[in-house]
Specification:
six-stranded mixed beta sheet; 10 strands; mainly beta; 0% helix; elongated; 203 residues
């Protein structure tokens, strides 16, 4: 067969330069810098010849800054990582990194969210032990709800025996039943339910 290379295509020793758009799997003009068309589900493969746990193959967003539009700072990245490299038992995870304080997003210290092979999601935590683990505070918009699905229960607990505290923000704090009874119950007969007003204060 023959190849028809337009003048816009430059072939060098270690790369191919295409200044406009590249379309793969179609003869139609692409809508972006790279358009890949296929009836299969695996459009793009990222191959890296390493086997170290924690290593990954990534996609990185590089943009300019106020000094130069071509500064190519790494602002955000997605890495497809090795979680377990055992032959026949391989497991993977996905890391979402975001730049902060000028640190490039390919630095492990910029991890913002992790999805493990078990489907656990960690926000600010790279080794989440539950389906969602957050290192920090959580804010819910006004009238938000945390709800157990179905007829099961919703449990608030602490892994190290600490307190569970309910605070208002500069106003009253309230535990309120909506439409049904409100139960306060201990698991053992020897345990008490203690109500204390301004405990340790002068009121």
């Amino acid at each position: 067969g023959s190849s028809d290379f337009h003048t816009e295509l430059t072939v060098k020793e270690d790369n191919i330069i295409i200044p406009n758009k590249l379309s793969v799997g179609t003869t139609a003009n692409g809508t972006g810098a790279l358009t890949v068309t296929s009836s299969g589900h695996d459009h793009i493969h990222l191959n890296r010849t390493v086997d170290n746990v924690g290593y990954g193959a990534g996609i990185i967003g590089r943009l300019g800054n106020d000094a130069s539009t071509t500064a190519a700072h790494e602002y955000a990245a997605i890495f497809f990582q090795i979680e377990d490299n055992t032959d026949g038992s391989e497991a993977g995870s996905i890391a979402f990194n975001t730049s902060s304080g000028g640190t490039a997003a390919d630095n492990s210290g910029t991890n913002a969210m992790q999805i493990t092979s078990a489907g656990n999601v960690g926000i600010g935590d790279t080794t989440p032990a539950e389906k969602l683990q957050v290192a920090g505070n959580i804010r819910i918009n006004n009238n938000g709800i945390i709800r157990a699905d179905g007829s099961g229960y919703l449990q608030l607990g602490n892994t190290s025996g600490g307190d569970i505290r309910i605070f208002g923000d500069g106003s009253s704090s309230r535990i309120q039943a909506h439409g049904n009874h409100l139960y306060l119950q201990t698991n053992r007969d020897a345990d008490d339910i203690i109500f204390a007003v301004n405990k340790g204060g002068t009121d």
